């Protein structure tokens, strides 16, 4: 099988699994509504910047990358 096609298939499967986990896990881990996320609400404006959520996702992706390289 072509390596690019194989990579795209694996990437798609990984995205589907992440989406399912996010949908199911959102009930238990409120990503996007963590303490430290910046929310400013005024009459005509709503500003949201998920600082802590970005940090958590970055740490999880870094850990997954490290583990993938470790067991490769």
TrEMBL record:
InterPro entries: DUF2905. The keyword Transferase does not apply. Keywords: Membrane, Transmembrane, Transmembrane helix. Pfam families: DUF2905 (PF11146). The keyword Transmembrane helix applies. PANTHER family: BSR5223 PROTEIN. This is DUF2905 domain-containing protein. It comes from Brevibacillus fluminis.
